[in-house]
Amino acid sequence: xxxxxxxxxxxxxxxxxxxxxxxxxxxxxxxxNQCNQExxxxxxxxxxxFKNILVTEIRKKLTLGFKSMGKKLVTIPCPESIFFSVFAxxxxxxxxxxxxxxxxxxxxxxxxxxxxxxxSNNWGKKNFSQxxxxxxxxxxxxxxxxxxxxxxxxxxxxxxxxxxxxTKHKIKRRPRFLRGEILIEWKKKTFKEINGNINKVxxxxxxxxxxxxxxx
Length: 216
Ligand SMILES: [Zn+2]
Hints:
alpha+beta; C2H2-type domain-containing protein
């Protein structure tokens, strides 16, 4: 049987040789989100306070000025149990060995999904004077390996410029995340001290693109 579209994961776009492979992938994903016995249960107030920290840090990146548009990264030290409490249900990749969790949000409902996770309507948009707004880009990303010219017609000149700079770099592998996607990762970062001490500390990384508009 040939590879069909229904053997592609709608979240990570990974392709599988057959529907069975995809089913197994989905089963693993489900397992990543199940309650982990080793992690502490976090009080709801603490979770909400942490969500507020995340929203504040994301909004700090929503600055005005066309020069500052593009790729953004928010980095926050974060215990594994807090990460799990906030993002369980949306985890799409996990490696115990590497100490990595990964969540991917994309498409037109990504803003809504993250609004529910963060308990905030304005987590990814900020209004400025003269009806200007800076926002986290939540669109279906333009396929990175598709014919660029045919896809580009409907977007504004600034976005064209950004996309052009992306395609200019002729990337063979799919980038870790595309414009329009929000990639949230939790990783253990290793710090080595001169005396040989090694510290492994959890960090949360929020990757996204921002853009700006003027509502007339
Ligand atoms: Zn997937």
